[in-house]
Specification:
Number of helices: 7
Largest sheet: 11 strands, antiparallel
CATH class of the largest domain: Mainly Beta
Structural class: mainly beta
Radius of gyration: 21 Å
CATH topology of the largest domain: Deoxyuridine 5'-Triphosphate Nucleotidohydrolase, Chain A
Number of domains: 2
Helix content: 10-25%
Number of strands: 30
CATH superfamily of the largest domain: Deoxyuridine triphosphatase (dUTPase)
Shape: globular
């Protein structure tokens, strides 16, 4: 079916689609899901959240790369690469660390998006990356992860899948939870990038680089009664899988994370195979006409890997309740092959700035747990106790 010549895009200019434009696509049936009301609820200022269906598979030989023109589910089912999951309990599915799974998503992309020149870029939601879980979008017709272009989308009918690999912790998932987000562009993303010292000056607040790079801040900060520069994951005393959705009773962070303090020389040891939560020295205050994509400077940075690229949406860092302007971004870092001595101020990532197709006119009223973050764990964990004590030199902590 060809795109309507007078479709909703007839007066758009190239750029990232905002919440009004995304809603328009859903209402026109170009993005479909379980219900229109559910799609509207999933729309943010510059992306739409994607939700798991109840159809999941374990990839028995490991991750299976997107396969281009072939239908992805047909390929994995007919080549002995997947076995369908059965629920471990009524609450959902338990996914084991070190194994890879794929779930079909509830949402679907209509081929008319290809005729309209719509491109897609995806990333795991911030809460997911902070639990050391890789979550990568697969779009039927594409041979790469985390997005689509009109040519690839036109080859298939826009079925969506999410490949999930827990690395440190066993996790639990269930139908309808949202682990990934999709940003849509009218026109090629590279054609709507914004660069230059003027825009960096507008976005970056406080200390640090102002050239489009992000550096690490190893200043120790207070968490309860202790100082910390980074959180380091460990399996601890709990073997219970971590639910990847918000619950009334959430896992105790003391059982899963250690406190790492920087030395007097502001250095921190990144150990091989361990996973760390750190923060940027720069704080961001994003205008309503810009969307941000954060990407590791390189696949490896001094034998560390930053796995989880992420989005910063329009108005991030400008809606703080404390009246301040600017919020740091979080780095999710894994040691790789050898230990590394990380220095305060080392460059860790680049930000790419995209023009919005239309400015966001209405602030997003949804819960924003990271709007005022300093050094913050995933919101899937309970808050740290007000009083803490270190149990040993490796950084294990308990309530005081």
């Amino acid at each position: 079916m060809a795109a309507e010549p007078d479709g909703p895009w007839k007066d758009w200019v190239p750029g990232v689609l905002n919440n009004v434009q995304l809603t328009n696509l859903c209402e026109k049936g170009l993005i479909t899901g379980k219900s229109l009301a559910g799609l509207r609820e999933a729309i943010g200022l510059s992306s739409i959240d994607l939700s798991l269906s109840d159809e999941g598979y374990e990839l028995v030989d490991g991750a299976v790369k997107p396969v281009g023109p072939d239908a992805y589910d047909w390929f994995i089912k007919n080549h002995g690469l997947a076995k369908q999951l059965e629920k471990s309990d009524p609450e959902g599915y338990t996914l084991k660390s070190g194994k890879t799974y794929v779930f079909r998503l509830n949402e679907n992309l209509d081929r008319r998006l290809a005729d309209a020149g719509i491109y897609g870029q995806a990333t795991a939601k911030s809460s997911v990356g902070r639990v050391d879980v890789l979550a990568r979008l697969i779009v039927d017709g594409m041979d790469t992860y985390e997005g689509f272009d009109p040519e690839g989308l036109d080859r298939r009918c826009g079925n969506l899948y999410l490949e999930i690999t827990p690395i440190t912790f066993d996790v639990k998932v269930k139908a309808d939870i949202k682990l990934s987000q999709l940003r849509l562009f009218y026109g090629r993303p590279e054609n709507v990038e914004i660069r230059g010292p003027e825009v960096f000056k507008t976005i970056f607040r406080g200390a640090g680089q102002r050239d489009g790079t992000l550096s690490v801040d190893l200043t120790n900060v207070k968490e309860g009664t202790l100082e910390v520069a980074a959180f380091c994951s460990h399996r601890g005393r709990s073997v219970e899988p971590i639910p990847l959705w918000k619950k009334d009773v959430r896992p105790d962070p003391c059982k899963h994370w250690k406190f790492i303090t920087a030395t007097s020389a502001k250095r921190l040891k990144i150990e091989d195979t361990k996973f760390y939560i750190l923060r940027s020295k720069e704080t961001l205050a994003v205008p309503r006409g810009i969307a941000v994509y954060c990407r590791a400077s390189d696949e490896t940075i001094g034998e560390m890997r930053i796995h989880y690229a992420g989005f910063a949406h329009p108005l991030f860092g400008r809606e703080r309740t404390d009246g301040r302007v600017g919020t740091p971004l979080i780095f999710e870092v894994r040691g790789h092959q050898v230990n590394v001595s990380l220095a305060d101020g080392e460059k860790m990532a680049n930000i790419i700035l995209y023009r919005m197709s239309e400015d966001c006119s209405v602030p997003d009223k949804k819960d924003k747990p990271y709007e005022e973050q300093t050094l913050k764990l995933s919101d899937f964990f309970a808050k740290w106790p007000d009083k803490l004590k270190k149990m040993d030199e490796d950084g294990t902590v308990e309530p005081a």
